[in-house]
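job 3f2a | input accepted
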Amino acid sequence: MADLTTIFSVFDFTRDRLLSSLDAIAKSGQNVEQVLVWRPGAGRAHIAWQAMHCAATHDRYVNVRIKGGEPTDVALCEAFAGGSSPSDSNVPSMAEIQGKLKLHFDAIKSFLETADLAAVTDFPNNIKRTVAESAVLLAWHEAHHQGQIHLTWNLYKGAHGMS
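job 3f2a | predicted structure (163 res):
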């Protein structure tokens, strides 16, 4: 089982990569709002959805899946959690994205500081996970979506003549 120091190291590593991608977009000289809403193809998620999906997943996973309660930010989860569809009319600003990412990242780390990492939680489809396994899964999930953001940003640059 992963220990808290390792979990936090991985969380911080993946979060730094996500924020670096967003920072590169902010400093690119491009219209940030256009970059955030650009889709790499029909039916594909834009960067704003990918980033907010990370925040929504942290909220829903801890508060609903592990604690068995309700998300703290229902509107965020309805718009950006798993099962939602990316919207072209509900696109948050870079500041909103960064704020939600920080809020829910800080909340999950705060929860994990006092959580019993060996506690087992029931998930849909008869899946059981320890809190530590859930934390590792969340770190992987964020890295996966950071990769989607990175890829979409590179495709945007290619489609708009940027190097």
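job 3f2a | Strands lie at 120-123, 127-130.
job 3f2a | closed
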